[in-house]
Amino acid sequence: MQQSKTVAFHTLGCKLNYSETSTLSRMLETEGFMKKDFDEEADVYVINTCSVTENADKECRQIVRRIQRRSPQAMVVVTGCYAQLKPEEIANIEGVDLVLGAAEKFNLARHLQDFTKGDSARICSCDIEDVEGFHSSYSVHDRTRTFLKVQDGCDYSCTFCTIPMARGHSRSDSIAGVLQNIQELAAGGTKEIVLTGINLGDFGKGNEGGKKREESFYELVQAIEASEGIERYRISSIEPNLLSNEIIEFVARSKKFMPHFHIPLQSGSNRVLGLMKRRYQRELYAERVAKIKELMPHCCIGVDVIVGFPSESETDFKETFEFLHGLDVSYLHVFTYSERANTEALNIEPIVPIQVRHERNKMLRNLSYQKMQYFSEQHRGQTRKVLFESAEKNGTIEGYTDNYIKVQAAYNPSYVNSIVDWLL
Questions:
Q1: For 302-420, where are the alpha helices, taking DSSP H only?
Q2: 6-130: which CATH architecture?
Q3: Phi/psi at 236 (nearest 5 deg)?
Q4: Which stretches of 91-184 are assigned E, i.e. beta strand?
Q5: At 275, which helix (H) or strand (E)?
Q6: Relative orientation angle of helices 175-187 and 217-226, to the nearest 10 degrees
Q7: β partners of residue 419
Q8: How confident is the model over 39-56, as a mean pLDDT?
């Protein structure tokens, strides 16, 4: 492989994908590749895909066409969830040279060394049941916040979700491995780490030397709290049934974990939650929110919710809307249900019309805006610690408070990558 080879990356989907792309990029740089921006000409383009929504599939196709117009001789590699789920479909996209499934993603450098651009795409994939092992990864870019992957895969069987088929069974880094990554990030000047995973609260399953390892997410956050070098941590999305009272109580007294949770709900209707095969009902969710707010009234709580799930009636949606309206949460991530191949939800009827799905999405996005405005207003006049990022935007700089309120200020170089006491 010649030293002058250039590579560009494009990432679709979740924060986990971004952390993995960043790791792949560093791996190739150690192999002599020079990194380019994705809108520049490069010898190799790597697309790390998502397949949570239909749009991600379409976007992948559009990106390949764009590369073809810009650099027709470049090698195009597609990996990620879409590549694991539908490798043949991707291989048939004109311009794609190499499709890497879940087990081969982190062997990218070796595949590039062995590969010569030809007439047909090569697929390197295996059955998802055969995917073993955990590959730690983290994002490093010009922001002060790093996403550290500590868990991958999922053993749940939600009827709308393809993630277990794309990422395999639940498996994790070891606590020792996480702490080692944290030390590397601390040495690089990182100020805040967001712990990420597919089912983060399920952290702890793994194998070492053929022996099963059993640790827990609670043990992980305790070990992180006792470690040195990083000032701020956030827990990314965590299932309500795995967010135990001891974790909530731990965050409430922690000096390092920020008062910020993101807890998927998906529906405020118990009937729909049952059809989704979620592992809780709305009453448990309300208990978790109440416990957080009892101990941390200032805590920011984000919610994932899906609209238009098959058979979701007006009554079901009204239940969801009113449940969220009355819940002391701060913002919503609203997803419009889209049909995914090989999921159980395809067998549930009646189908909710697309227009109705979009109307419900809009109603909840409006509610989310109101919730965030109200949450921010509650803290006006308070002084909170803001971690400012490094990017300058039109003479301004942005950052987030400990409880995830976005702050914008006139650009000041002394704020960059610094935690500043800030009057809201």
A1: 314-326, 354-378
A2: 3-Layer(aba) Sandwich (3.40)
A3: -80, -150
A4: 98-100, 122-124, 137-138, 145-149, 151-152, 171-172
A5: helix 270-276
A6: 40
A7: 387
A8: 84
Q: Per DSSP, which regions of 75-173 are E strands?
A: 75-80, 98-100, 122-124, 137-138, 145-149, 151-152, 171-172
Strand partners, 174: none
The pLDDT value recorded for residue 1 is: 41
Query: In angstroms, rounded to a whole number, what is the distance separating the alpha carbons of residues 52 and 266?
Result: 14
| pTM for the predicted model, two decimal places | 0.88
Residue 343 has pLDDT above 50, yes or no: yes
- Give 35: exposed, middle or buried? Use CB within 10 Å, 0-12, 13-18, 19+: middle
| 99-to-168, 176, 209, 337 alpha-carbon distances in Å | 17, 33, 30, 27
DSSP-assigned beta bridge partners for residue 196? 149
State how far Cα 201 lies from the chain centre.
14
Which CATH code, of 3.30.2000.30, 3.90.1150.10, 2.40.380.10, 3.80.30.20, is assigned to 137-370? 3.80.30.20
State the pLDDT at residue 115: 77
Tokens coding 13: 């989907």
- Alpha-helical runs (H) found in 278-313: 282-295
Among residues 227, 173, 233, the alpha carbon closest in space to that of 198 is found at 173
Burial status of residue 30 (CB atoms within 10 A of its CB: 0-12, 13-18, 19 or more)? exposed
Q: What is the CB neighbour count within 10 angstroms for residue 423?
A: 10
Contact 27, 109 (CB under 8 A): yes
Specify the residue for token string 């000409």. 41
Q: Which residues pair with 44 in a beta bridge?
A: 7, 75
Q: How far is CA 310 from CA 275, 293, 345, 352, in A?
A: 9, 33, 7, 6
- How far apart are alpha carbons 174 and 181 in whole angstroms? 11
